[in-house]
Amino acid sequence: MRARPRLADGTGPVLVVLLILLVGLAFAGPAYAEPGGYLALLKRAAPLVVLAVGQYFVIVSGGFDLSVGSLVTAEVVVAARLVNGDDANTGWVIALLLGCGILVGLVNGLITTKLLVPSFIVTLGMLLVLDGAVFLWSGGAPRGALSPSFRLIGRGSVDVPVLGQLPWSVIVLLVVVAAAVWFMRSGTGRTLLAVGDNENVVRLAGGRVDRLRLLAFVLSGLLASVAAILLAGFAGVSAQVGEGLEFRAITAVVLGGVLLGGGRGSVVAAAAGALSLEALFSLLNLLGVSGALESAVQGVIIIAAVAYAAHGAGLWRVLRPHRPVPDTA
Amino acid sequence: MAVTHGTSGADDPVAVVRLEGIEKSFFGVPVLRGVDLLLHAGEVHALVGENGAGKSTLLKVLAGVHRPDSGRIVVRDEEVSFTAPRDAQAAGIAIIHQEFTLLEHRTVAENVFLGREPVRRGQVDRRAMETQTRQLLDWLGEDGIEPGTEVARLSVARKQVVEIVKALSADAKVLAMDEPTAALADNEVELLYGLVRRLRDRGIAILYVSHRMREVFDLSSRITVLKDGAFVTCVPTADLDTDQVVRHMVGRPLEALYPERTSVPGAVRIALRGAGNERVRNLTFDVRAGEIVGLAGLQGSGRSAIARAIWGVEPFTTGTVELDGVPTRVTGPRTAVRKGIGYVTEDRKGEGLALRQSVRDNTLLVRRAACRGAAARQAADLTRLLGAVGVVARGPHQEVRYLSGGNQQKVVLGKWLAVRPRVLIVDEPTRGVDVGAKQTLYRLLRDLADDGMAILMISSELPELIGMSDRILVMHEGALAGVLPGGADEEAVMGLATGHQPGAVA
């Protein structure tokens, strides 16, 4: 049977939210009167979307990855020092960064699956270890510089017909999202989702639960490296570049209606959640709301989104003052 | 006993609650289709029906949890509309659920008056609370319970009494009891009988929901039968016998429940030769293609241990297992699946289904999880597969948690059929499944055997095991106690299972 394309559960609401925000942007800022403004938004959002996709894999299989923010910082700092402004170094450093991402994912995944330490703790530990390592290695002030060719990926554009200038980061974003959608439609992707729902069932069906979990962490680490490469070019080198990104990615995924604890949610929704978050920050910025409020806004969103996921459309009934007493005598 | 109370006779019974033409649908699926129910003061009225017949939904309508889509609820000649459970309570209707709604670490009296504590000078008036609770307990003839006792220290039966007292203290005139004996020990059931009769004699109307025919006939004066959400009949208990009630519930005679044994056993598919481990020992038997072999025994006799050993969860440590004549070592579920052994586990929700995933994803789960490459990707015959097992769902994208037990079990079977196993082990295949779906599952298992599958069936329900099996292996304390032919009588099976009778064959 061929599955016709359809929205997975919970994708609807976040798309509505995104649409409202995009329309809001058009009214709030003149820059959004033409496609260029939205393209710039996509470019800004690209690192977060890529991170959210990685986080999605881990969350949907029943875990958390708190280490991605520190991983981004570490990779950016390492990249600057190793590239040292020389274009000749770009290629191998990028390969090294991707390899490091995979390695960090492997460590997270192996400790989670083999030592049975909850992923929340494992990746929290990894966050602290990477933080410390960066500080030790850079002394707080990153040295070295990126090369122009390295920065091109996060910053540059390519000429395409019709659209004009298409940023490289947008291309990366589209490729990542398309690949993630393809993966989640494959047998392995569906099984990963089932692991988050009930790992016993998958194990008894002959599936390799540990390997699937491991794969999710590796993908998260790999995508964090991609995000690091994009961010390095876009935002430049600093020891704070990845700060708080793990929570922002989790917020994005949750905003996309993905169930914490796993088993439900679509990757498109997670990506849309990331885009919505970025659009919201842009909108607040245009409305003159202080940037300092960003994290407060994020906090409200994460609580509201989880509450909505728990109650669905029935949330308003729960919040109503005269709430019906539960079914007790 | 109690047959004529409050039904016929000179004085007209007082109607306390009348439900007329109650209809209720969820997501467009009708669950109640025009149900009538009339409860009299001082009667025990039994409500029976298969799983999914709509009993619970009707109770919830009565309790104000669900609002009916149409129909009338009349309480003492006055039409009412409940928007919340509180409204139903105010109208004197209380539901006693299977799960109690008591706070374990508070006293009996505190629980009875929970949320309605009498107040004196701004403080909870404990003495008034305990006095009133004691009065109610005395009124019910339950003087063995102290109002000041912590609920956690009471037996299940006594907690049930507290639950009832709690309802009465809120002035309940109608008590709906949902499977009240489910949690009780046998000697406690008698105590409940006494309590129900005393409640009846004090003018309370009791709606008694139960699967157990014996209780229905012991207690009730009238029986209302529901089937597929529709009202079938309401008759005085004295005019019926068990068979007639079951026929009303099922809508057909039960003889045709088990399909005929049509298959001719073929080659040996799986053979155990002196197999054993910590839980079972020295097992030697064959299952042939086309055969359904039943595995009987008491809880803990090693029935499920055999299944788990064959399947490599706790493998055999001695002896050999041959699949199609080839000695095979199965080291875990993955090898078992790849060698062509399927296992429908006892715990459907915990081990059989990923409940939040779709019918489609669950059905393809084994193939995707255990097979490689092309075999895993090929999904073209999903429709045929779902058709073959007869799943009724809104579509392949519906999440399986919304399906009935019977349909869920069909999905589990479909999941295994997708990899065409040579040997299928089914553990309690019809647990929590209603009679109609049971019949479908029996037919399906027989068809699979006819197609050449070797089926090993474990069941605690002896009639099912005897009705389905071509041969019955009886386990006793980890060893094979004997082999009986299909259709053997229950005493013979139980004799072997309890170790009273020496093994016939080994």
TrEMBL record, chain A:
InterPro entries the UniProt entry points to: ABC_transp_permease
Keyword Nuclease listed: no
Keyword Transport: yes
Bilayer topology: Multi-pass membrane protein
Keyword field: Cell inner membrane, Cell membrane, Membrane, Transmembrane, Transmembrane helix, Transport
Positions of transmembrane segments: 92-111, 117-139, 160-183, 214-237, 295-316
Highest taxon, organism lineage: Bacteria
Pfam families: BPD_transp_2
Cellular compartment(s): Cell membrane
Protein name: Autoinducer 2 import system permease protein LsrD
Species in which this protein is naturally found: Lentzea roselyniae
TrEMBL record, chain B:
Claim: Metal-binding is one of the keywords in the record: no
CDD domains: ABC_Carb_Monos_I, ABC_Carb_Monos_II
Protein name stated in the entry: Ribose transport system ATP-binding protein
Annotated GO MF terms: ATP binding
InterPro entries assigned: AAA+_ATPase, ABC_carbohydrate_import_ATPase, ABC_transporter-like_ATP-bd, ABC_transporter-like_CS, P-loop_NTPase
Keyword Repeat recorded: yes
Species whose genome carries this gene: Lentzea atacamensis
UniProt keyword annotations, A-Z: ATP-binding, Nucleotide-binding, Repeat, Transport
Stretches assigned to the ABC transporter domain: 17-253, 262-502
